[in-house]
Amino acid sequence: MTYADFMTQPRRRDKAATRAALLEAARLRFAQHGYDGTGVRDIAGDVGVDPALVFRYFGSKDRLYGEAVTVEVPAGRLGDPDRPITHITDGLLHDVVFADWEEFDGEHPLLVMLRSSGRTAIRDQLRERICADYLQGFAERMGGPDAALRAELVGALLLGLGVMRSLIGSPALSDAAFEETRTLVARMVAALADD
Residue 92, Cβ neighbours under 10 Å: how many? Predict the structure, then answer.
């Protein structure tokens, strides 16, 4: 059940629907206003419930944030050892930089987290998501004494492209098509990966 469906349904207590609606409202609020700019009362108000329900279902604003902005890394992204790293980064370029994540007001959850990265706990969570969930597999695939550094450079490239396109709205990158961008990114990644 979507947030819109929840809001138009007659009021009967449905824990799963209320919880899902709170998560959906939180995703939009956190994407638009960041952690500090979003209050529990705002989220509860968007759903039309008492703020106490947020604490009942999630325990705290921190836990709600953690659950709201967490998206699983697609299974098998690095699973095929014969798949070139440039092909893997193609998928990440699309997902992080070009995809429209409607539930996060158009941005990838990692970019949403960047808005609140001034908070230590969120910065730690962001580091874990990027370095462990995404880049550790790249480093293992690349091999060599500087593999971790090269993997983090690939991560910086992708995240930086997302920031330039989505948060800053740089003109050339904002106007560029995915196909045009992916060719140039593939060249840079190939140099780092020695693919």
Answer: 24
